[in-house]
Amino acid sequence: MSVSTSTALGPADAVPDPPRQVDVVIVGARCAGAPLATLLARAGRTVALVDRAERIGNTLSSHIMQADTLRFLDRLGVLPDVLATGAPPFVAADTRLEDFHGLLRYPGATHGPGGGICVRRQMLDPLLLVAARRAGVQPVLGAKVTDLLIGDGRVTGVRLRTASGPVEIAAKLVVGADGRQSTVARLVGARRYHVVPGTRAYHWSYFADATPAGPPTFVFHRWGDQFVLGAPTDSGLYLVGTAHTLPVGGPAGHRCTAEDFLADATSCPPVAQALAGAQRVAGIFGLTGFDGYFRDGAGPGWVLIGDAGHFKDPAAGRGIGDAFRQVDALAATLPGVLDGSARDLDGATAAFARWRDREFLAHYWVGSDLGRSGEIPTFLPEIVRRMTDRGRGADLLAVLSHDAQPTTVLSPGRAVGAVGRLLAGGRVPRRRVLAEFGAAVGDQFRRARLVRRPRHEAATAPTVVAGASTEGCR
Ligand SMILES: Cc1cc2nc3c(=O)[nH]c(=O)nc-3n(C[C@H](O)[C@H](O)[C@H](O)COP(=O)(O)OP(=O)(O)OC[C@H]3O[C@@H](n4cnc5c(N)ncnc54)[C@H](O)[C@@H]3O)c2cc1C
């Protein structure tokens, strides 16, 4: 079986003559950009959706999506097409966190579109683009944004490099949905803050003829320094992902051979069972050397969404869903202010940026903690064990799907209770439990201080237009 199967749109879909004046230019036509274009077009706004890629196909991602993401796809009207790729919605999450192991049932699987799903990006992203086209947007592909148009201290449009020469598009608002290396962010001088360097390498690949046990299940096993995930994906394939700590000195000396990858993958029993008799039908994709961050989110005439504005450790599998949440928020406010004053528009995008920080910060820290090297503090699996014993496993899945804030589910009260039980039980050395808890409390204080006084990196280019302040983003 080939894994190149894709619904990718190509150069034939490119617009030969892009519009020169629109309400909104969106740079980047994937998870963040394409649905925003769809929703704005449905609200009657004119949109130019541009991407430097000549075809929207695969991109680096292990593409696990949780229940909220499925609900968004449903509202966008593409869920039937997504399900037609053959990707089965998950019924349960086979979860291991250190010495805790249990099967968590997704509540959404019985009365909603499903508990989660895993669809390769060369299948998903083109479907998002098709939805935009159905809404009347004509994607401008093969068009790289090289500069911003500036007037009266505001961003007023973009300059594109296309096969037929440079093109300028004027707009009331430029949306940077152009990913981690965002050109828009660089050109406006948006600075990163709350930066957390990744300490692990992620690798993943696809297998045919896999035989996972039971109904469609997301396997998420995190123990010691090991991290293995598995999930049925589209086209009858099975996704396997692994992560391990980078050598001291960073990604340069890092290698992951096919043997290393398979050994890591099959150290997880349910994945080993799924792969017995399966064949790997794709190369091994990898990501080494990445940072988690927030970026200044908005300024005069510009706003960032998706990875352009915020990236987190892939361990939490939240990038796509978080992009969709940001799309929802922005699409709800923009139509009401695009015809108003520049001040109203900039006020709305600045409010969006503050909301983004409030909404995603707690999840960001959880993702960073899950992704970092080494064992998870013992009180966390203890919280999870107690909650599942009491039938509250769905609350944990609600954190993964961003339907609940981590601070309410993994609450200080539950942490203190777990520490008390561990100290009383004597299973884990007392000194270790207390040291881990002390470190976690220290992290909380350090992070609270960072929120009050974010540490911004220097902008990578001279600031063209000052970014919105993050002060008061609590
Ligand atoms: C290793 C890894 C694993 C991941 N696993 C998961 C997971 O399991 N679940 C999950 O939900 N998320 C996951 N993510 C995150 C997820 O892939 C991203 O959050 C998501 O792709 C963000 O979408 P986006 O539209 O913001 O940016 P992108 O997908 O990066 O798209 C940006 C687009 O902008 C275009 N562009 C860039 N510069 C320009 C320019 N100058 N002019 C015109 N166009 C431009 C690019 O061509 C690209 O098409 C993972 C990420 C990584 C790296």
TrEMBL record:
Residues 22-194 form the FAD-binding domain. Coiled coil: none annotated. The keyword tRNA-binding does not apply. SUPFAM superfamilies: FAD/NAD(P)-binding domain. GO terms for molecular function: FAD binding; oxidoreductase activity. It comes from the Bacteria. Keywords: Oxidoreductase. This is Flavin-dependent dehydrogenase.
